[in-house]
Amino acid sequence: MDDEFANFLTHLECGLTSEYHQAGEVHGLSRAGKPLLARYDLSAIKANADRDAILARTNGFWKWRELLPVRETKNICALGEVDTPLIALNNLHKNGTVIVKDEGRLPTGSFKARGLALAVAMASELGLTHLAMPTNGNAGSALSAYASRIGLQTTVACPDDTPAINIEETALQGAKVYKANGLINACGAWIKAGADKGLWFDLSTLKEPYRIEGKKTMGLELAAQMGWALPDVIFYPTGGGTGLIGMWKAFAELIELGWLEKNDLPRMVAVQASGCAPIVRAYDAGKRFAEPWEDAHTFAAGIRVPAAVGDFLILDAVRASGGFAIAVDDEAIEHARQTVAQREGLLLCPEGAATYAAYMAARQNGQVSADERAVLFNCATGLKYPMPDAGEALDLANPA
Ligand SMILES: *Cc1c(COP(=O)(O)O)cnc(C)c1O
Fold first, then answer.
1. Ligand 1, from 158, 210, 379, 381: best to mutate by most atoms within 8 Å of Cβ?
2. How far is Cα 103 from Cα 97, in angstroms, rounded to an integer?
């Protein structure tokens, strides 16, 4: 290693069977067809890394280098990452009890930057040259940005009703973009067929091991920002569930490192839209795996995911944490977006607004109390999404 950073990745493990898979090789899913989880020598990290020295670094999620899989610094693709702010909704709730982590401040305007930066860096490290994925919008944008930054080629397929801004930003950042006549799962099958032919590497959600490692940094960053402590409850807008799985993994690693002041884990809440709620349905039915959702619809496109390959990892984390899964309809999501924008001056994306709608529903039905500290994830900038028409016509001949 010709680098100032030691690397502690030891191997990968099947998320279902724990079967060993070797590091340093290209992997998709495990041999059992399930997501792979990266494993580290945590006792060596504990002996060699210092949590406060890490915190003193300024480069956003890349500061967690010892807990990430990338070996060589030349594979790090950076676009000015920042630690995303915690913003308490103090006009609407008792001081400091409801906090939004605003991920819209990241490069490409969404938390997809975390996962894709890591996936692209590892693809580069492992010698891949052409990456492809299906996307509902933000993933494609983050992929194209980071891949172009480090000189890799990208192809993306999205449903043809994906917001134009996502399609256009993704194309401008260098990807070949296809608008497809089907939902994300159908796009995923098309990308997979191309990968099987050797046209490109399939970077679909959880179908390679490293996006989780990027999303994991949300959990590390949150713990550090809260003084090496965790909130009582986390509301996460759940599509493929990468972030929820990643944060749960982060908390386990932090406990093993002894870096938390108290080992109290938050309850994890998976938030979905009632027009596409496969995880909520499986949670309610007591199942470990989720059936695909038919006729998925919601204007919160980021959580319009009818089937998730990491379903059991999401459901295991939700149950192990004592949390729950909850669905909210589009009307409640829109109402939540308007409430938070008007009362707090914070413009959420629809998926972020879904977490606030879910928080309010959970308060109403007693699943969460007013004294509990809740963190809601606003996963993207509100500016990328259609908004209600506004503005009144003015004839300047009339006085103010
Ligand atoms: C991708 C995405 C989600 C879902 O994230 P997962 O971690 O894959 O569940 C939610 N909201 C937005 C805006 C997204 O882009």
1. 379
2. 19
